[in-house]
Structures are given as C-alpha cells and as structure tokens.
Amino acid sequence: MGLPDGPRTPRMVQMIEWIARPLSYMESCAQRYGDPFTAGFGVFPIIFVSNPQAIQAIFAVDQAHFDAGRANSILQPILGDHSLILLDGTQHQRQRRLLTPPFHGERMRVYGNLIGEIASRVSAQWPEGQPFAMRPFMQQISMQVILQAVFGLDVGQRFDRLEKLLFTMLDSIGSPLSSSLLFFKGLQKSWGSWSPWGRFLYQRHQIDELIYAEIAQRRTEVDPSRTDIFNLLLSARDEHDQPMTDIELHDELITLLVAGHETTATALSWALYWICTLPEVHERLVRELDTLAPDADPSSLLQLPYLNAVCQETLRLYPVAMITFPRVAKLPFQLMGYQIEAGTAVAPCIYLLHRRPDLYPEPERFRPERFLERQYSPFEFLPFGGGNRRCIGMAFALLEMKLVLATILVRFDLILAEKGPILPARRGVTLAPSTGVHMIARRRPSNSPQPAPKTDRLRSL
Fold first, then answer.
1. Which of 177, 238, 350, 453 places its Cα 20 to 30 Å from the Cα of 220?
2. Strand locations in 342-422, DSSP E?
3. How far apart are CA 429 and CA 178, in angstroms?
4. What's the pTM?
5. How far is C-alpha 160 from the chain's CA centre?
6. Could you tell me the fold of the domain covering 11-459?
7. Are β-strands 430-433 and 424-427 bridged in parallel, bridged antiparallel, or unpaired?
C-alpha cells in the first residue's frame, strides 16, 4: 500500500494553510482522511500520525533508520548548523550525551532556588489592581531563568543587552505572517537593515558577538565552583576526551535559550489563563498549596498531585509543539499497513493525539482530574516529544512551571481581564495564546487561609 491519503491541493496552498491556520489544517485533514494522513507542504511527504500504537512503533524503529535533524532545517537560521536539533547519527548522540547531565539530579535543587527568586522579583513589578498583559512577564521570567541558570549571567550590561536582543529577534518572527521568513527560503534575502530578513540577520549577529565574547571570557577565567549549565558544558568531554568547540557551544547555548524561553513562557501563560478561567481549578490548587508545612522543603512542590495535573493538562490541551520533530526514513519500513519508502517523513502529531476522545473524554475541556484518574503512556501523552528526540530540558521545564505557578498563587489573587475566550495562534514554529493574556493581580490579604510561614518559605525558593 502506498502513502496514506491526504490533501491534493498545491504545495504552496497547503504551506500557507499550515502557517496561517495550523490547527484547522490538521483537524480538517484528520476528519477527511483519517489517521494517518499525508501532508504535502514539505520538501518531502510528511505522514501525520496520532495513533498511540503507531507512535510506539515509530519510536521502536532503530533510530539509525531515520534522519530527524535535516527535517528541522527551517530552524537553522536561528540555531546554527551544530544545534542538537539539527544533528543526526553519531553527532546527535555525542551532543546529547554532553548536554544531558546538567538537566538532572541534584542540580535541579540549585535551579529551583533561582527560579523562585526570579519569579518573586518579576511579579513584584505587577501594577496591583490594574489590568496588564501576563504573557510578557512570563517571557521575562523564563528569559531571566535561562540567562542565569544556563549562562550564569548576573543582571548587568551584557545580561540586559542579550535579553533585549533575544526578545526582539524572536518577536520579529513571531506572528504567522513574519514566521513565513522561516518557511519560505525565497524570502530570506537581505536588502539592508530596513528589510525583514536584514533586520533578523543584524540582530542575530549582535547576539552571536555577545555569546562568543562570553565563551572567550569563560575559557580564560575558569571557575570550577560555578554551577550554571554553561560552565558544565565548558568542562564536558566526549568519549574521546574532546570538549565542544566554540561554535558547538554557541549553537547549543542558542538552542537552550530559544527552546527553553518561548516554550515555558507559553505554557505558563496558558496555565494561568485556565486557572483564572475556572474557579474550581484555582480553589483546589490554592488549597493544595496551603497544605504544605511551614518548614517543608521546596522540593515538596514537585510532589503535589493536583499542581502536577494542572501542568500536564495545560500541556495536553494546547501543546506548545504541535508535532514532534519529523523523522525522515532512510530505509523503507511498515507502518499501520502502509509501506513507508525512504525519503518520506513521519511526524507523531501531538495536538491530534492529545485531542483523541478515546484517550481524553471531552478533549476540549480543561480537566486536570483526568491525570489523577489514570496514567498515560509515553505514546499517549508526549508534550516534550519522544524517543531519542525527547526534549532534554523536560525536567527543567516542569520544575520551572510548578515553581513559578506556586510562587505566584501564594502571593496573588488573579482575575482574568480578557473580554472573550483566548484562542491559540501560531508563534514562530510553536502554538501560543493569541493575546497577551490580560489579568488583574491583587496581593492575597494577610488573613487568607495560606499561613504566613509558608509564604516566607516560598519566597526563599
């Protein structure tokens, strides 16, 4: 059997649909052609799959039979040639081994303290009693966490400049229209700093200069006592006792900055939106936070079941990544009765998988309890991808989500200030709220049920 059915409209038309209306594109294709279906907007056919058994089969195939890096070439202008996301084979395995250790173990405790401090500092800037856009503050928190936890940068001139440049560069390709610069290579022409691509290249060049300057300084001023991820990567060695080169370090640092900033800010914005939209969710979550003993270790937050369920349901309903990284077959293989030929890509579809009513009854409803009622397999719930391409920062991202939400909710009562429901929209290659998620924040009164010692404990996170 050949490729699964899919739309026959011209490639350019499908590409425009995928950029401008990705959710309706996927939903209409799934409704008309079933699961799986073949999308025709890429340089090679892409088979969208949302069947858990099929996804398990894809992850079970020897990953040497796939190339995933070359399917992500759209991100090369941002991340560089040596990013983990763009590598395949032994190069990918090497970089993954070097990058994984800093995101596990006792180092999470160090990062947890930092995350809580940043969330407290940023939320203190909120205009109390006045409507404000929450998403920019979530972006500020996630950016500062990345700059301090990954780079080890203290607030100062280089920190401020890098933060501003990264915000500007990512915003320049954030809307569905401006993100076309990534999808259409023909638009990647520089006509000077006044042209869209020219501005992007100029901003990227300034960011590159700052990062390479930091690499040079850190190589000459070695400090083994530092615990930031940058320092750990500087000292990391592969099986041949070789360190990363400057360009490898640069590209991996950019990858961590971009992937770790936008995704977490988006997830936090969605979580606060749903918490404020549904009073029963807010009340149950605050009650759970109030059960923490005054002398509880901050790591206790990570064990709170309803907080965990709220984070999981947030990532289920509107996953930041709509599909996993496509995997391009290097050899033919069988999938759901279809013969997948070399040169064809398969893409487990996170969005459609998370909307399957057989797995998630009432899939359009935000209902955290579903994650308390059953355990989902890695082939049924995969907001961070799966297989050998699962996000290495998954534990870090979940830690950040829980700590930021807890830090905010023990201090503030939040009221949604949006006039209507917030819908998802494309932001670059991800899915984000279509508005700034406007809210009104008021400090929780001193006579609130939450005991004061615990507030102080969370402030010290």
1. 238
2. 345-348, 412-416
3. 11
4. 0.91
5. 23
6. Cytochrome p450 (1.10.630)
7. antiparallel
